[in-house]
Structure formats: C-alpha cells, structure tokens
C-alpha cells in the first residue's frame, strides 16, 4: 500500500529516489552490439500505449476511497498513486511519453507530464517506478492544492480513461488536513451518525444515515460544482460555499424547504432519516426534492462535504435566535394574559437549529481563523445574492469578529443575544410597553454534535462562545455590536426580587398538562399573586399553530419559596395534534403579579410530548439475499384514533428505504406488525425502524446487525 506523502518525507524525496536503468550497451551507444541494432529497429516504430491498468484496489486502499460505490477510480490529492502501462515496445531514452491530465468543461490539458523529461509541473510529479520489457509502472503525485473534480488522462494520444480527485485530510499540505486519525474516521469515513433535536432541556437524538460512499452520491457532488470556475475548485472555502449554495432549491439546487405543515406532493421533513435518497433522486431527475427543514439540509450538506473529502459534522444550536432587528436582542411582546402579540414580535427563537461545521484552513483571512467553519444550507439569509451562510470561522464567532467572511454576524446573533420580554398594557386607548424580564443567557444553549468515535452527544458550546457572563463573553458582545453593552439598552426591570420558573420539561401524550410553578421572593410576608399562563401549540421554529388556552389563578403565598400547580385538560391539545404534519411542542408564557406591590415577572417554557413505548425485535445477524424479519408493536394510548400509520426501515445494507402503510389504529388498541427486508451489503450495518402517524411522530428504534 502506498503511504501518504506526509509519512514519506514529502513529494520530492520520494520521487527523486526512483531511477530507471536502461541496458548498458544502449546507454553507452555501442552501435555494433546486436542489442543496439535490435532496439534501433524497434525504436523506429512510434511509441504507443496499448493499455492502462489503474490498479484500483491498491490505489483506493491507500487513498481511503475503497468504500465508494462507483466504477471510476477515486483519488485524494497530494498523494502517490500508481498506474501500470503496457506499451507496444520497450521504452527508449529518446522516447516521449506524454501524460495529459484534463479537467473542466473545455477539457484542455490542465497538467502535462513526461517521465522521460519534464516530470514536474504545477506541483504534480511522475516517475517510472518499475520497467519490465514493454510494461511500465508509473508513480504519480497530484498537487496538494490541485483542482478537485473529474479528470481525463491521455497518454501519447491514448485515452486512458477518467478518475475523480477529491480533497485529502490525510495530506499535511492539503488545506483540509486533519491531524487526528480518530477525527478523520468520524468526520470523513463514518457514514452514519446522529442529528440532535428537541429543546435545550429535553435533547433528543435522531439517527441519520449520511451514506457519502453510496452510489451516485459523489457524482451528484461533482455535478453540483459544475458552475464553479477551475480556479475556484482548488479551495475548500469556495467549494464548500458552492456546495452549501446548491443544497437549496431556491438556488436551483437539491432540496425544497417547507415549514407550512402541508407536505402534499412530497415527503414530510420528519420522515427522512438519510441523505442518500435525496441526493440520488436529485442526481437522477435534476429537479428539487420535496421537502426539507433545517436538519435535512444539514444532513445532506454533511454528506456532500464528507464525500468531497472535507471533514464535516452536523451541529445543533438550541434556543437559536433569528434576530430580525440585527441588534443582538430578541424582543417578545405579551398581552396581559400572557399571549404573544404576533404583529409586534418580529424576532423569533427556534427551539433548535441545525447546520454543518466544515474543517479547513482559511488563507483568505487574517491569521487565527483556521479550523471549524459554520456552513448553513437552510434558506434563511441572503449572502452575496443567494440563500446560504458561511463558511464562517468559529474563532471569529467566539470573538464577536463579525466583519470576518462569510456571514459571521448572522451566525453570531444565532448563538448570542439577550431575550427581552415586554408586557403591553392598554391604558385609555394607549399602549404602554413594560419590560418585565431580561434573560442574558438563554440564547445559544447546549450546542451539540456527535462525539468522535462514540454514539454520544458532545457539547461544543464553548467552541462557539465564552462562558455566559464572563468578561470575555461581554467583550465579544461589544465587538459584535460596536458599542458598550449598556448603550441603547432599556433599563432592566426593577430588582424587586420576584422570580419564577417551571419544573416540568415534558408531558406524557394523552395525559393532562401539569405545571409546577416555583415562586421565589425576598420577603416572607403574606401576599396575593395573580398568575396568567398562556399555552400554544408550536412547531420547532416558534411558529404558533393554535392557542390551547389560558390558565388564570390567584394564590396566597407565604415564605420565600412557594409552589403553585397549574392544570389543563388533555383534550385541549389531543384533537389538535394532526392539524399540521409536523412534530409539535407546547410553548407557554407565564406572567405573575404581586397584587399588593404591583411587581411583575415573566418567564417562558417548553413542554415536549413523551410518546408511548415502541417495541422492536430484530436479529443480531443476517445474510445477504436472505430475508431479515423485524417485529414491531405499538399501543395507541390516546383517546382518539391514530391515522395515516406508516412503518419504515432504512439501512445502508438495503438498496433503499422500505415502508408499509397501515391505515388507522383505534384508541387503546395494540398494533403488531412484521416486516421483511433483504440485505444486499455485508458488514455491521445500522437499521433504523420508524413508526409515524398524523398525530404521533418521531418514534424510532435502531440496532446494528452484522450482515455476512
């Protein structure tokens, strides 16, 4: 196996040590020798190439590309590869053996090499490694900054075929070089993983199949880069930005975003568990695939970057701000019952937002901005005329250096900012806005990605921001805003010492909503407190779908800490679960007012639904071409029927995701279902089994099955 250049002391020393020995009589030109006469006769024939053996097994093993399901040879730049060439006669010193590497639309030669004379050109090198009669083994190294994409090779006018050249995180001279082998295994070679969803206090993992080595995935990526000029294909900065752009159908790319709750004519975003069918369908049809939301955009972008050789990880930001005012604050306006006033509340906070980090050097920027860069394919923000975000360096985001390219201010506001809650009071036909809560640490929480080498969540928040409240964090906020934080900020609500928070994070589906509200005061005096709680059914982007109702209660409190129980009947939400084809949460705003003093305080909270148990039985092993049986059972604990039931199984062991429709499940009834699927690929393979319905979503189970 050929070793990477970094292990062999660099390109020059490797190839300079290779020499070609010709017969002694030929070198010293003895015209009377029979050997000379024989060779002279043969030399009069033009040198022709009869065949080229690309040594695919040997080269792909050395280049970590043998997993690609593709007929073409896939190579990584900056690393040696070998070709075995059969000629029409033995090679002579005066022969010309011209290698022309062409790439791009015009197919004009990009690099020309000749092992007999000009064996170096534009960072590429070639030498004869071995010769036996008319068979020659050539050792070639592409430049560590070579253009990526499809190449064709002609040798003395012989069409030797095509190969694909991608980035090389194993090569120390490549700008995507990643020193850690464990990280290369995770961020380049791992074809499954997790995307994190839910909200900051109730994080859920969604198994995701990246599948970067599957059929047509790399071809799709090369196709998506078709509009880049050759000089842009050198750099992971321009390539990653282009791939990010082309993930979105608004830019004539892969996936159509849809947050409407109506997904007729396509696939509901929560149904996807894999990038593979999306990229394969787009490559086959050259049309947008319907539909996706942020985690699907991150999934396909992570797949495409890993396929191209750029280390990538899917990252989730919880409590992610969309600051429409660009002032590093999120302002929420409530009426006196706690309901959000939609036409005043322009900013939004998404329960979570998912993007992709890519690893690369940034020679286009001042020093200090190499490493992880944010790329976001979700169509939120226009950057240089197209919907895309990044690459934006984590180092710049952390420091508040929002002028650093690309789109760093937008990402900074997603992970930083203060949340202001305003009470809008009606007073004789006039509205008065009273600031009743300021939260300086509620935006950008528990930023998460899959841990290297383990099926666990890693918290990477401190890679994006300094600890909340630290002097460094304050300095970063001042850098980003261009002024002292105290300027233009409204006065904080008076520090009367009244605080409230809610203990619960979830509600079991089908059961009443119970909230335990904790009131903290600085006094132990008996007081009367008015509490108003408004509950909404929301999607993860903070979009209100319906108000579930308002709970109002007046309680007497004594002592510095008191608990108040608020209840709402399950019927308030059960019959509304199927109103949109999205997974929903309950969002609540609570206002408390001390009647004796007029002191007010507010807080918000999220409740996720806990679904009934989903039982799945699967064998530990299976065989290629033999049916694998999966048994599922599920109980409907709701007092309403579950409709549009669907079971599905997805795995890289299978040719495609398989699903079965199962109609309706009545209240209180069990469903027992058996699925058969036939593996086509060997190895330890993850199987993801899902149960979905109109009312209940994101119920899944997973297992690794060894296929032999």
Automatic annotation (TrEMBL):
Question: Where are stretches of biased composition, namely Basic and acidic residues?
Answer: 471-491
User: What lineage, starting at the top, does this entry show?
Assistant: Eukaryota, Metazoa, Chordata, Craniata, Vertebrata
Similarity comment text for this entry: Belongs to the transglutaminase superfamily. Transglutaminase family.
User: What is the protein's species of origin?
Assistant: Mesocricetus auratus
Region (Disordered) residue ranges read 467-493
* Protein name as it appears in the record: Protein-glutamine gamma-glutamyltransferase 4 isoform X1
Gene3D superfamilies in alphabetical order: Immunoglobulins, Transglutaminase-like
Transglutaminase-like domain: which residues? 286-379
Task: Name the PANTHER family for this protein.
Answer: PROTEIN-GLUTAMINE GAMMA-GLUTAMYLTRANSFERASE (PTHR11590), PROTEIN-GLUTAMINE GAMMA-GLUTAMYLTRANSFERASE 4 (PTHR11590:SF70)
Q: Where are the transmembrane segments?
A: none
Q: One Pfam family this chain carries?
A: Transglut_N
